[in-house]
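Homework-ish question, so no full write-ups if that breaks the rules, but can someone show me the predicted structure for this set?
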Amino acid sequence: MEVTNKYVAIKANIDGAPQESDFELKNGSFSLLVKPGSKDVIIKNLYVSIDPYQINRMKIASDSQTTSVFATMIDPGKVIDAYGVGIVIASGNPEFEKDDYVVGLLSWGEYCVYNGPYLNKLDAMGLPLSYYVGALGLSGLTAYAGFFEICKPKKGEKVFVSAASGSVGNLVGQYAKQFGCYVVGCAGSPKKVKLLKEKLGFDEVFNYKEEPDLNLALKRYFPDGIDIYFDNVGAEMLEAAILNMNLHGRIAVCGVISEYTDNGKRAIPDMLSVIYKRITIRGFLAGDHMGMFPEFFSTTIDHLNTGKMQVLEDVSFGLEGVPSAFVGLFRGDNVGKRIVQVSND
Amino acid sequence: MEVTNKYVAIKANIDGAPQESDFELKNGSFSLLVKPGSKDVIIKNLYVSIDPYQINRMKIASDSQTTSVFATMIDPGKVIDAYGVGIVIASGNPEFEKDDYVVGLLSWGEYCVYNGPYLNKLDAMGLPLSYYVGALGLSGLTAYAGFFEICKPKKGEKVFVSAASGSVGNLVGQYAKQFGCYVVGCAGSPKKVKLLKEKLGFDEVFNYKEEPDLNLALKRYFPDGIDIYFDNVGAEMLEAAILNMNLHGRIAVCGVISEYTDNGKRAIPDMLSVIYKRITIRGFLAGDHMGMFPEFFSTTIDHLNTGKMQVLEDVSFGLEGVPSAFVGLFRGDNVGKRIVQVSND
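A: Not a homework solution, just the prediction itself:
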């Protein structure tokens, strides 16, 4: 049985900040039947994740080793894989059956067929399915592993989180508070600042757009220095954080969103401070920490059920909205995890 | 009993590359007698260490946290403390007695009085005293702890060392070879290149001054990428190394000599590579790893006695030569550990 599968594609590789016009909605022909003998799982996508890192897969592949390490580049016109939650329509894999909810690498499309290793059955346990795309999905694991495994916090330490209202940042701040740290975030609007302080319990939050000197801003919020910096933005913020780190400070480099769409924008860190303060700067990807998933999952479910953590998500409806949802990430439009609901459950 | 103590001082704080004219030889009055009731140890300096990091203590202290973390700044006109080997003239401390050789924080002078915690008795075990300033002193511990503790090598890994003929770099390369790694160094003259390959057993060495593109040079020497980069220089070399690092690569930041005398010179690392390749960049100081001293010491003594390691040192005679010895470090004049012998044993 063939249907039309609407999906979002890039028209050409993207250079600089993405525009909605860089994308197109395409129609593919899609079979809802499992190929005989295959282990394909045919999935109807329900909620898909809109993540900043995708921009790095859309750029023109250069021959520098920088880009060659990006898992897989996205080809113009082709289906774009993305994390999400879906429902099984048909399955050639005995682990999955029709009407199972699943979570894993789906696509920015209406349907996808899956035959790789990164798909799991999902029991939503009464929580919204969208939670499993963000707080209980890869964003959550990124925040959890990044904070606990990469930053190795101690109670009472002083933690700074940039892009603190972003999908990962807001969770890092909440984990850090629950763990007993002093947490300061930065965000890009008064609305976000208020939300993080009042709803999520950050100790302090500042609007970086209102700070002419980030170094001085950090000195004001961290008179005794920063022990842990969870970096989501890079560039000047990383430079300022390094100047304010304490001895043996740790920096988890999770993302550098301010650099993604501007090739000229880079951090120029003071390496002398890195030496004298014995700072560790460590890049990481959640995929290396899948072993922490059960611990992350049970801790987070518990925090959500007891009201100790809040889910901050920003869900819009309709595949047509994917390009604007994606493009808006780089303007800081989103508050929390940006998700597009592709169809009703 | 009062004598004249000649010592080297800076005339004023130094900005940029040091010149010999920035220094002066001063005469202080110095008592060879222990103050009654004190635990002072009166020492005649024999060999003193000439280290690049001292330049950072000679700069004008700014109010940035960068400089405030540099142990202690050096005041114009004052005695400059420096690592070295000396002989005890008189002691109020029961742990030391007249004619003991000692190693620790002495000074760029003829004599010093010591009452701090960083002094040890020295049994040279038939080896030259100067070895205890370099290969068997803090330079050696820096190389050993930096390589084994910060870089956490595995046999067969590919190691890059910059400033490979410097006091620390040459030892890192030798430890890495002994450990079973593939080792490439870079240095700044054909003579150094030859020495490192032929005498110290580096697998490959290149002259960075002859390489118009450091990224391409590293690709040539590391077609399969770099697992460990031991950074002594910073700036463009760090940038190029990051582009050539393998997944889970480790960078020990020991020094950034190319940045010390040029405030405008900084590395602009590709943080996206740091994330995707999960690179760890870690600044360190040997002082945090004193617990490794016994292991470092016995291993190194053993390697020296069995001829598996060579000592590369560059010893000149006379306190008057300290300024030129120091200034020359930043032109790369030294081959190996630069030491000034202040007086005969």
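Now go work out the reasoning yourself. Hint: Chain A is about 25% helix and 30% strand.
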